[in-house]
Specification:
There is one protein chain. With 226 residues, the protein is of the alpha+beta class. It has 7 helices and 5 strands. The chain has a 5-stranded antiparallel β-sheet. The protein is globular and about 45 Å long.
Length: 226
C-alpha cells in the first residue's frame, strides 16, 4: 500500500507555505491535542556573533541563542531546498528536529501499541517521509531569503522564534518556530504557518492511516519505510 504523501496539506496556499518554509521538513507532530501555543511575550533582535577569542586555550564553543540556532537551521534547510536532495533534508532534520517527541506525539493513543524496539525504525521512516515530501515540493516554490526577526522569552513550552521567508516570486510568509532545549542544544518542536501549527497535519495523517489499517501502528512503520 502506498502512503499518501500529498494528503499532508490539501490546500494549495498551505502547500506553498509548507514547501517554501521547509516546514514540511520540520512538521513534526505534536499540538493536535493541546491548545495552540501563546504568542511571544517579548521580542529580541538576533545578537551579533562574538569576536573570536585570542587565546591559546581550547577553541571556544559559541553558545547559540534560540534565534541563532533557528537562523543556522533555516539556512541549512534553505540549502537543502536548493539542492533538492532527500538525503540533505533528512540530515538537517535528524540533526535539528525534536524527533522522538514529535514521532511519539504523532501516533496519539496508538503510541502505547508500538514496541520501544520498533521506535528507531519508525523515527527513521518518519524523517525520510518528510524529507521526500520536502524534496518533491520545495522546487515548486524557490526561496530567495530566510531571515529571523524576533525571539520570545522562554516559557514552559519552549521559545518562539519568528522568521520571514521570501520566495523568488516576491511572495512572503511569516513562520513561527517552537524551539525546545534538549541537553546543551536546541531542537525544533513545531512550526506555525498562516495560522496553522504544522505538526497537527502529521498527527492527523499518521493516526488516520493507523486507524484505516486495523489500529496497528506497525502498518505505518512498514509504509514509511518502503
Amino acid at each position: 500500500m502506498q502512503f499518501p504523501v500529498t494528503s499532508i496539506a490539501p490546500r494549495r496556499g498551505l502547500v506553498r507555505a509548507l514547501a517554501c518554509a521547509a516546514v514540511v521538513a520540520m512538521p513534526m507532530a505534536a499540538m493536535a491535542q493541546a491548545a495552540p501555543p501563546a504568542p511571544p511575550t517579548a521580542t529580541a533582535t538576533l545578537p551579533a556573533a562574538p569576536p573570536a577569542a585570542a587565546t591559546e586555550a581550547a577553541p571556544v564553543v559559541r553558545k547559540e541563542s534560540p534565534a541563532g540556532f533557528m537562523k543556522r537551521v533555516g539556512n541549512e534547510l534553505l540549502a537543502a531546498s536548493r539542492s533538492g536532495s532527500v538525503g540533505q533534508f533528512a540530515m538537517v532534520l535528524n540533526s535539528n528536529a525534536d524527533v522522538p517527541s514529535i514521532g511519539i506525539s504523532a501516533l496519539g493513543e496508538y503510541a502505547r501499541s508500538l514496541p520501544k524496539t520498533d521506535r528507531p525504525i519508525y523515527y527513521n521512516g518518519m524523517i525520510n517521509f518528510i524529507a521526500r515530501y520536502a524534496s518533491k515540493e520545495a522546487p515548486k516554490y524557490p526561496v530567495a531569503r530566510f531571515i529571523v526577526t524576533a525571539q520570545s522569552k522562554e516559557d514552559a513550552r519552549g521559545t518562539y522564534v519568528d522568521s520571514r521567508i521570501t520566495l523568488a516570486s516576491g511572495d512572503g510568509y511569516d513562520v513561527r518556530w517552537l524551539i525546545v532545549k534538549r541537553g546543551n542544544t536546541y531542537k525544533v518542536r513545531d512550526a506555525q504557518v498562516i495560522g496553522f501549527w504544522m505538526t497537527s497535519f502529521l498527527d492527523n495523517l499518521f493516526q488516520s492511516f493507523i486507524s484505516d489499517n486495523g489500529g496497528n501502528p506497525k502498518a505505518l512503520v512498514v509504509a514509511l519505510n518502503r
